[in-house]
Amino acid sequence: MTQSEWEQGVPAVIKTDAVWKVTAYRLALFLSDLAWADATKLIGDRRTISLADQLYRAAGAISSDIAEGYSRSGGKDRARFYEYALGSTRESRDWYYKAREILGPDVAQHRLNLTTDIVRLLITMVDQQRTTATRLA
After folding, report:
1. Which one of 19, 82, 84, 117 is most buried, by most CB atoms within 10 A?
2. Cα 36 from Cα 57, distance rounded (Å)
3. pLDDT grade, residue 92 (50/70/90)?
């Protein structure tokens, strides 16, 4: 499934929220849905059952942390939650690398690329919020 196909199924209540405009949030929410299917596949192999749990938790936390940070009023506070999301994104990327033997090279590479895109966006967001926090102080 492509991101645009996935977006067609996202409920309007989510797409009409202001946080939907944040590209990193949309990508992270997409990743969390992909991680659900990926974790289901990983559970099928005894060796990767715990990996599936870790992967799904880390991937699911990214969009949640972005949403929580977006709801904060101060740049310094927002930056802290975006940093949590950044950590979860890097953790997810690490788990995806470890899952490559079960998920296959094409799926693994797609997930590695997607998490890397999210990392880049979050680094920019954190820097912007830190700058905002400095100006307000």
Report:
1. 82
2. 10
3. very high
